[in-house]
């Protein structure tokens, strides 16, 4: 492979591979060892190779993916994880080859981990029975049968002692296992559990990451980074000695290891190694893979609606220009062929914009290694033009052509708004620079129709946006609005007389995008028009019907005299050559008094565009006002499109369910483009959208025929581009331009050689994850991409737990829901469905439910499908009846609710009703909704326990801290009833917070603020330690995502207090498996005890009502 590194700034380019005599390194993952063979995962399939190395052959192939192979103790079978038909389950296959046997059916992720020492059962981890992050360890008979949970509350990996009486296991699952030098609360640990009573003994560690336990004879082998790059160690459970076995001079972390007869096979990132415990010798196992790999084959691929990243309508609405899979395509609205304007697989071409004259398409391209501006002929014929955007290189967005098609406007990642004059030297000119980098940063720029002015919004010090106008004649920008409202979407009217925008004066705390106090606020605004010149009357002045003494001819002459720039017309139609646009002039003096409201009412505006003269289009969205709304609107809600016509003074709805960001108007103002329910529709811009338009459409409304749009995909070329793109994202978005001291050029040289050996898209994710882990920061995630197509899992669930009794499945627990809440529907507790705990499940859709496999097999394909159950009180079927239910695809929300309710009852019981319990699953909309619902509902309690274990973060929970710190200020006395404290909705007594290692990000910030503000003590275990922020990155060309923390948080005294450390509890309490097995929650119980102690030490303050004042009124003497 040839690696070309440009030396300008941080620029680089990994080129296509050249001829080489050296085979590229292969990412052979999760190896496992038998006496004769090694099995491993590569390219989403299971392969085997002789123990001494050689040419590997496939063992498991087919549709889907297979991973995590583990040889049985005698080497005759291999358990593995299979992702087939949308489900991830445990399978077993003969080591010599054959048909795999499926062992699990639950729709959660079941992953194979190991075997019992007798080889009869497979060990796996699964989230099926837990309410939050942590999986549990189960065993399932290898010949098929019912899985059984180990008596441990959590577990991710494990290895049994030879007598099966103990297990060395990893109790937690890390969110970021590739984070180099990680030392936060989620550091991996290994515990040795005695299965008879669940007593655990931790393997001693210096807060290192210890993982991958392997119990061989009298020792536990494991991988650890306690002395540098992850390498192999051993632990003697009897004497306690820990020995380093391998000196990892290579530097790459050992990713996994597996013990087998007389050896341990290691995945040393790109190399398989075999360690011999008896001699201490480590040898490399040479492996070659010479086979057809389906995922690397270039192929033609139909563009799917969710692959369209950007789309714009052309000048007269005849075509739509789209970005899909890194290609720019011109798609006919109705007739014609699709044109691929770029024809460049493996190049990212972004943000296409068609010119108003219909001749060109502008877009950004990284064909040279850094993004440049490209102008392409719209018909695809002839040479294009590439314009360098200078140094430092950056990401660029949002191209806007000037109406005369001679200039372009766009902005970059560095908050700079640029203009390029194509008729001049085409050198970018800086228009302005914004103040704050937020996830919602935007300029909302637009041109005047004479191409001499640019209008846009910019953030002020108060975090609100003001409208500005930039004159190309003077090169100066002028602020148009006063900054006391949040302005958006400024647009010039085609007449040149007016400027429109929306503004909100009610945004308030909603401008604090990272603050939880910005949530739940019903922000609205209004649309306004600015009269640009003093001599122009208001377009919304009161109307009056009056007789006009002049003739029609006189009126036409008068009109022309009043506006000499107006074009001549014949029979009401413009000449073939339209008149030039009116010249725009702005009288800045007194401008604030020439702003008037459009008569369309207040709304939550999401967009504003202009069409023909005097026509304004607005997009509105619902305001999230209730807790349920907040939880439902995590994704941007669909919008409603309306058209306001000044001549008619009419605001008319054109379409609902418009996908955010999809609407555009043709340059002539006569057509519009929008996406609705995965259909891209071109329609006249002056009439409501017609319902049910099929592809092709009728009359003037057309639905794009995307089934006729395809692109050539070259996976290896794409993977090289995405490798480069990943580094560009880290370089340009990461908050520290030094990348925490990482030599990015050395990292590129280290990891680029692996590209040539990748066999599947998921292998690229592994490579990128390991590579970016060297930045050593939280929130560095590599996700998604075009993985082998899989349907959505359809195994149905009833929200119940079962046991086998008398040869049938007995229902032992029914999860309760909130059947009025679509997200918490419990199938067996619906009104009219009489199913009770202790009854038997006898048949599903008339078919008996076998007990030689898990019960979920009977519900394969039945999620969200009407299903008839036969249930009854007796195993023999006596008294059985049929009920019809709708199984759900996931029980996770039901199990979480059950856990929360159990905790609430526990706190209530232990405190005698004095202490409230509130669970916060995150610091985003879910946590905000939970706090509003459960904290205020328990006002009247004397103290509160706030449980933020497993909190996944989101925002900075300022509003929660503010509310918890409220103190009584006064008492409101009334004639009847009890006195009311002010504030009324508060709990004034002690507060205790419960934390654990699975709380992070905003879940780090919440206990940090709790501690800094002396709200109360923290109980539990140290949090994750990932207090940075992510958001707003360009997608990779195949839809994958890369994050680079662009916001980092430090304390007001100038110290990095949380990142890679976490928040330590004031009272450390572990989630002890032995106590949990006995029915206790040691962390929660200690929190309640602490709250009760504080309550005794600081009892609630009593308020003494003073005697009513005696004012000694003196009445006048009568008469």
From TrEMBL:
Record bears the keyword Oxidoreductase: no
GO molecular function, a single term: serine-type peptidase activity
Composition bias, Basic and acidic residues: 1108-1119
Keywords, in A-Z order: Cytoplasm, Hydrolase, Protease, Serine protease, Signal
UniProt-annotated catalytic positions: 779, 1001, 1059
Chain residue ranges for the region called Disordered: 538-582, 1099-1119
Record has Isomerase as a keyword: no
Enzyme Commission designation: 3.4.21.-
Source superkingdom: Bacteria
Primary location: cytoplasm
Domain Tail specific protease as annotated: residue spans: 878-1070
Subcellular location: Cytoplasm
SMART domains, per the entry: TSPc
Gene Ontology cellular-component annotations: cytoplasm
Protein name: Tricorn protease homolog
Source species of the chain: Lichenicoccus roseus
Organism ancestry: Bacteria, Pseudomonadati, Pseudomonadota, Alphaproteobacteria, Acetobacterales
